Amino acid sequence: MAGHSHSSNIAHRKGLVDAKRGKLFSKLCRAIYVAARTGGGDPTANLRLRYAIDKARSVSCPKDNIERSIKKATGELGGENFEEIVYEGYGPSGVAVLCEVLTDNRNRTAGELRRAFEAAGGNLGATGCVSYLFAFKGLFIVDPQHATEDRLMEVALEAGADDVELVEGYFEVTCDHKQFEVVRKALEDAKIPTESAETSYIPATYVDLDADAGKKMLKLKDLLDDNDDVQNVYANDNIPEEVPAG
Fold first, then answer.
1. Coil, strand, or helix at residue 161?
2. CB neighbours (10 Å) of residue 21?
3. Entry pTM
4. Exposed e or buried b for every residue in 210-225, given b needs 16+ CB within 10 A?
5. How many whole angstroms separate alpha carbon 172 and alpha carbon 193?
6. Which of 1, 91, 133, 151 is most buried, by CB atoms within 10 Å?
7. Res 3: pLDDT
8. Distance of CA 131 to CAs 180, 198, 231, 234, Å?
9. Residue 30, phi then psi, degrees to nearest 5
10. How many Å apart are CA 189 and CA 181, to the nearest integer?
11. Spatial contact of 218 and 235, defined as CB atoms under 8 Å apart
12. Cβ atoms of residues 73 and 37 within 8 Å
């Protein structure tokens, strides 16, 4: 696991915001739409919607975009019909990859993802081929300047978190996904701000890549990120630091 950091992944993703702002807003608003359609348009009564709104606000998604997505979902405006799917596959050197997708045409999306995997030396797999290598957990990233390790452990573990670990300069707090809201509220009540708070597929093991495979893996992630239907990409890759991102 050496060299792997969920916080660095999040920082990398935030670094792409300016370059792909319009595309990112579109994806975030699509997630808001689905959350509101399935659980109602009131974020105080729909936790999934609240998380989706918080995520959109964290990257300065316009308020009008957020409100329009909710109105579409609740029938105040005309809306689309998106389907939630998790695609699984293998990247270079057998890296396990999960893609969370919202699509209005699963045949189109499957074809596009298959081409993306093949272009990077991987292949799209069958349902269940790699998901067993991941655990769906709550993940919180905390800057050490906001809390000591002892204080963070006291608050997080008391709320039911599984672990607190310092990775590349940031604390990573993990918990069972069912405890996510309890831990989130405990951190909020303790006035411990988070750099990121989300549910995530966390790998049980990692695949160490050489420079060549690392470049191919970054290419695959870029291709998947560029796809409008792909919401999130999770992988158990460990890319060497000398491989430049982007």
1. coil
2. 13
3. 0.79
4. eeebbbbbbbbbbbbb
5. 13
6. 91
7. 41
8. 20, 18, 17, 10
9. -65, -40
10. 12
11. no
12. yes
Tokens 């999306």 belong to residue: 109
Residue partners of 220: CB distance under 8 A and separation at least 6: 91, 92, 97, 116, 117, 119, 120, 121, 122
Distance CA 13, CA 40 (A): 29
- What is the rounded distance in angstroms from the CA atom of residue 56 to the CA atom of residue 33? 12
DSSP at 109: H
For the chain, where are the alpha helices, taking DSSP H only? 6-15, 21-39, 47-58, 63-73, 106-119, 149-158, 180-189, 211-225
Q: How far apart are the first and last CA of the chain?
A: 22
CA dihedral 9, 14, 15, 21 (to 10 degrees): 140
Token pair in block for residue 230: 């792909």
- Say how far apart CA 28 and CA 127 lie, in whole Å: 25
pLDDT, averaged in runs of 10, over the chain (246 residues): 49 52 80 87 88 87 90 77 90 95 92 97 95 94 93 96 91 93 94 88 92 94 90 90 68
* Number of Cβ within a 10 Å radius of residue 161: 24
Distances (CA, A) of 132 to 96, 107, 240: 10, 24, 25
User: What per-residue confidence (pLDDT) applies to 19?
Assistant: 53
